[in-house]
Amino acid sequence: MATPLSADRQLKALRDEGVKVAERSGWRTHNRNHKGPWGPVHGVMIHHTVSSGDDASVALCYNGHSALPGPLCHGVGRNDGTIAVVSSARANHAGSGDDDVLRAVINETPLPAPNEANTDGNRHFYGLEIVNLGDNKDTYTRAQYRAAVLWAAALCRAHGWSEKSVIGHKEWQPGKIDPRGPIEGGGSFSMTQFRADVRAQLATKPGSDPAPTAPAKPTAPAVKEEPPVPATKVITESVPASDRLPAGEYTLIKLAEDTAALQGPCTYVVTAYATITGTPGTRVTARYHDLPLATGRPSLDLPIDGGVIGPDGTLNLSVTRNGALDAKEQLRIELRADADATVTRRVLRALRTDA
User: Fold this and answer.
1) N or C terminus of the chain with fewer C-beta within 10 Å?
2) Cα within 13 Å of Cα(271), Cβ side
């Protein structure tokens, strides 16, 4: 069990490790502590932002959006290797994840595959969002990757943790894909390699560079032109009509004028809200799926626990997902109730960047 570091101790740990830090105004007191506890902390979690443009991404992670209020992490990894700190306490980054994974992090034992979303991760993890579209094409700069290693090592060193207390979002919550994507100079983002690099950093004195864990491929210095920043669209759709949820069956939920939440090609952050009425005590679960239109065979996420219908016969559910869709691929959502229930309100809010 570890007490969270204060803002001053976080800043000192990062700078002692050699992290180049930029302080976003107000970060010391900007948090979600009014929505839940912060601590004990047990590890650090790595994400990608599903966005582009450093300044815009830092602003997004600080402010959040209509579907998910900020802060969305503790640090933001800019392309130049700077970590912008945007919060020092509870932040909306991890969401609900698998309690078996949390136990493995606490015990620093091998991670099981996540298959539940039953534990509050925002309480227990520091979070780093690295600026990247997350489409498996956008490239992390070497400076970004190195800064992320230093950031994770700094917090692990401050708490006396090993690299086994470092996880990716995809290792915490079913259906997540971050972090992913190619790294400048070769290779793709691998949490196994990332932990090895954190381990190598922890074996050195703070602020020094470890020997590389693998020979670096020689690359000629390149002048990289910044591509145009894709426009991010904010989408809000709602449907007042009702849908029946037959007991024990997953039912495809219509959003706006069709059954697709989004259609590719794009990267996205999406939250679906629903008001469900039925017998008090009825449990409701949700799952997203990607549907390739060519095959019609969906790729199903593992279920997300949506909650239980309350004593007043009502449940207000919200489930969030981030990811990427290829062309001719749709994102859909299904709900399931243990007893007959009715969806009386549906709202979709999303940030979409066209690929």
Assistant:
1) N
2) 14
